[in-house]
Specification:
Alpha-Beta Plaits; Dna Ligase, domain 1; 4 domains; five-stranded antiparallel sheet; four-stranded antiparallel sheet; 15 helices; 28% helix; 25% strand; elongated
């Protein structure tokens, strides 16, 4: 087995800095009101002379202007569990340790590649989320935890080299029971190598069985005995803003952050999201809810952000916003769309899913619908909008249309053009081409006389329900160079009727 350990030495501070990346000198303080001390400080505060363990009163005497925020243990626990959910993407065996996460990765390397590649992926995810870290690997989780406290990036890949790696670990960083950590240096035992060389019976009489059990878990003689972590079935994350926000534009940064967190959580679950709710919190407990629905489960961070931003832009804030909360309860399985091996689309092309959701966010839920085909041969009845909710899960990734077919591409002129005897080309056997955009109902084709490209194609149907039609269809080119599908009644030249447009 091979265990990776992720140590998060600045978890509390990193959680705060994610909300305010451009903060000046900032410290986190803890302790009694009259004796608070600094437990964490950012780079600007350290450069100004502030340090961990310093009394807040002394820091205020040294530096007049800096931000001092209380250490929030509940927030630290939330971030700890959130990052464990992110790590769940790489292993099904994830456990929580104090300010650290351990995960079994020996089987994961068959999927993600050798340890250096897997380590780089873990670091990339944590860096993108804004959390500083140290990562090590060892055959046991406790050994990986101990080695992470000594150095960053160390990898002990075999049990044979584990004991040698532990030899040099100082007792002060060995994570042994507190009684042993305090007593052993006074006895001249300063490294784990010296401790492992002592007789076990003497250690048991002096420190009890707890010390021996800890050593056995380090070396793999005993099972790790860790509780497995499982990510929750509901994503619920709240970001408290640093000041009151009165316009939507100022909510873009926290929105990007919170949707990115949602995407990372979904990747850990290997799932997607179908619907989520943004809650904008105001004074006196007032809340503005912004529901966001998708036609299919998605988890791409850019798409989630674009969709949520489009919905947020339509909101009129009744009051200043104090906090933003995202709740996602509908988390169905995610099935990525199939891609061609050789994709000939332009590099800057927008994926069809992202374009679809962007249009829905800007134009409304009912602006895009699924199209179903019918068995009726009349073109105006050949397709129909599927009877489903805008957020239904049966949407086809390859078939969607805008719901304003009565507004075709305009053509100049106001007089219906007359059929002229132009050279005609026969349509291929079995019928001619069909338009890309089929209109909901035929309308007059206005403007100058079009040029016939192909036709005629006779359509005679509808006798069974009283809606009998008899038409000759042509492929024509308008004066603007547009290719259209038009018809007129057989034997008549009263004008063209437009039925559809070709792309």
């Amino acid at each position: 087995m091979l265990w990776a350990c992720i140590v998060l030495p600045h978890l509390a501070l990193d959680g705060v800095l994610r909300r305010r990346p451009d903060a000046g000198p900032l410290v986190l303080v803890n302790g009694p009101v009259n004796a608070r001390s600094i437990v964490s400080a950012n780079r600007e505060a350290r450069e100004a002379g502030l340090h961990v363990g310093q009394r807040l009163s002394a820091a205020q005497a040294l530096l007049t202007r800096f931000d001092a925020l209380p250490y929030d243990r509940e927030a630290v626990d939330r971030w700890h569990r959130f990052l464990a959910a992110v790590a769940y993407r790489y292993s099904s065996e994830v456990s929580l340790l104090p300010h650290a996460i351990v995960l079994e990765v020996s089987r994961s390397m068959g999927l993600f590649g050798p340890w250096p590649r897997l380590e780089a992926m873990l670091r990339a995810d944590l860096t993108a989320l804004g959390f500083r870290h140290r990562i090590t690997a060892a055959p046991t989780p406790h050994a990986a935890h101990v080695l992470a406290g000594v150095s960053d990036g160390q990898a002990v890949l075999t049990p044979d080299t584990l004991r040698r790696a532990l030899q040099r670990v100082p007792i002060a960083k060995s994570r042994l029971p507190a009684a042993a950590t305090e007593a052993l240096p006074g006895m001249g035992i300063r490294t784990l190598g010296q401790l492992l060389g002592l007789p076990r019976d003497g250690l048991r009489r002096r420190f009890g069985a707890e010390l021996l059990a800890t050593l056995d878990r380090l070396t793999g003689e005993l099972p790790a005995g860790l509780d497995a972590y499982r990510p929750p079935d509901v994503f619920d994350l709240r970001i408290e803003l640093m000041h009151e926000v009165e316009n939507i534009a100022s909510l873009v940064f926290p929105l990007r952050r919170i949707t990115g967190d949602l995407a990372a959580y979904l990747a850990g679950r290997d799932g997607g999201v179908q619907r989520f709710v943004l809650r904008l919190e105001h004074r006196d407990g007032k809340v503005t809810e912004v529901p966001v629905g998708l036609l299919t489960p998605e988890r791409e961070p850019g798409m989630l952000f674009e969709l949520a931003r489009g919905r947020l832009d339509q909101v009129q804030l009744p009051e200043p916003v104090l906090a933003m909360r995202l709740i996602a309860r509908e988390l169905p399985p995610f099935v990525p769309a199939g891609r061609d091996l050789f994709d000939d689309r332009p590099a800057n092309a927008v994926p069809i899913e992202q374009l679809r959701e962007r249009l829905r966010a800007r134009l409304g839920d009912r602006a895009v619908h699924q199209l179903d085909s019918t068995t009726d041969p009349r073109p105006e009845r050949a397709q129909a909008v599927a009877g489903q909710s805008p957020c239904g899960s049966g949407f086809s990734r390859d078939a969607f249309a805008f719901t304003n077919p009565q507004s075709p591409i305009p053509n100049p002129g106001s007089k219906a053009s007359r059929l002229k005897p132009l050279p005609q080309q026969p349509l291929p056997q079995g019928g001619g081409p069909r338009p890309t955009w089929l209109l909901d109902r035929p309308i007059p084709l206005r403007g100058t006389a079009p040029r016939i490209l192909a036709g005629p194609e006779r359509l005679e149907t509808g006798w069974w329900d009283g809606g009998e039609v008899c038409r000759d269809y042509y492929v024509v080119e308008t004066s603007l160079g547009q290719h259209a599908w038009a018809f007129c009644a057989p034997g008549e030249q009263a004008g063209w009727m437009l039925q559809g447009w070709f792309a």
